[in-house]
Fold each of these.
Amino acid sequence: MAASSRAQVLDLYRAMLRESKRFGAYSYRTYAIRRIRDAFRENKNVKDPAEIQALVNKAKRDLGIIRRQVHIGQMYSTDKLVIENQEKPRA
């Protein structure tokens, strides 16, 4: 993989993770992060430049979807789950 292509993929990976961490709903957030990591790990050994470009284009579309869903989720936000509100006990 060319250096510029590798940098582009890493930037895209970071952007997808960063945007997924903005999901308000815990289940969506953890699912998105897990799927992104799994997909990138699954395709890390791809060598064909055409296939790499197709995967990059798909990831860019998916990033747009994630951004839209985050915005929609912010418009219709809900209360946090019990698992998210765990505070450290005061001593």
Amino acid sequence: MGPQRQLLHSVIMGAPGSGKRTLALRITRRFQRKTLPSGDLIRDNMRRDTEIGVQAKTFMDHGKLIPADLVIRLLFQKLRNVTQDNWLLCGFPRTLAQVEALDGAHHVHLVMNLNVPFEVIRQLLEARWVHPTSGRVYNLGFNPPKWSHVDDKPEAHNKRMKEKGVLETFFATETNKIWPYMQAFLQTKVPLRHPKTQYSRRKYPCDQQDE
């Protein structure tokens, strides 16, 4: 009987527009893991008119944020079906309450934080973005989104993950510059889907030149 396969449960975090979903899709294509984007799961449940989907749509139709406990129920329901797989969460957790809930229910081995300069994100989004779950539209210059609590800021999440020794931060200005470093790092953690392609590990931080 061969050695037991070591699982890797991971999270990718970053500000809206930092490239989380793009990188998560690349990770899924390259590595043996299941990616669970919270926004996609919510939209899928809404399309199928599930109990959670109907509740989520009600909040969104009234211009309200989907409550943290509803998102937690949805993700945990999905995670129960992939306990023996490598998985990657994208877009969750967003708040400290969600961080604590995830930490209490599942062992997260790795948190990949995308540190992209605010000015770069602002330019990429052309000063306008739509909150993926509530549908609210914000202008980063004149109507920036307000954090519901000081502990909901990314700095609070990162501090908690750093204390646990699972935080890995990638600095760059675009996903194409982050990806080679992230891919090389992950090759030391999880099997490739196509092992013949290998990338050498490079020194952090990533190239910080603008596009």
Amino acid sequence: MLEGKAMVEDSDMPVKMQVQAMSFASQALDIFDVVDCKSIAGHIKKEFDERYGSGWQCVVGSNFGCFFTHSKGTFIYFQLETLKFLIFKGASTPS
């Protein structure tokens, strides 16, 4: 597990959920090759959907841009090893 090496860059998630996000990311890195970002993101999304209900989105990579609207209290952006992780639950209206 690598939670201690993760660096949160921005988040509005409760701390317990942030820790869970980093734990799922660490698990995914133990299971998948670091270059398999799609499988890593899929693993994290599946875990969040199962634990916190459907509608979660996950982006993993070393260089990406994005623009989105998220539900309040569901956003985290962090780095673990060489990858950046963006996890959020989508919203139909700005929060």
Amino acid sequence: MLTLASKLKRDEGVKTGRAPGGPSDSSHRVSIRDRLLIKVAELEANLPSTCKASFPDENKLHHFQLAVSPDEGYYQSGKFQFEINVPEAYNMVPPKVKCQTRIWHPNIAETGEICLSLLREHSIDGTGWAPTRTLKDVVWGLNSLFTDLLNFDDPLNIDAAEHHLRDKEDFRNKVQDYIKHYAR
């Protein structure tokens, strides 16, 4: 189980020459972000069944990847990779998320930008980021972009939304073509 708490204890013991659990060195500070990331293992345990998180560098829990494999809807059978970076100012600002998989989606640009209200630092409708939000909310929000949060009325990728309005079957075919070429 990967936890920041065990890593911090181990690192503190190495840096100070003390055994973990011994007297602490008050000059060693841990950021609020890192304190909030201590429970990353809980995130892994509470993921939707269609999601899998991975940590390319176990020493950087603030940078991880999320794979979403929808089991229903237009995007069923695709595997979409997201890169999530948690900034130092977290939880006052939202994580930075980018879709690494090319996709034909009204709320995800082909270049990877994502339109998801909880990722907005400032939101008119009050559904944007708030310090009470968690990484779990982000993961569940990204997962929902493929089902109930799929929004053709407020698109980021206007061409995809208009395509859906014009011809739903052709839209479905183009989505499947993108999955075949980019999301396997």
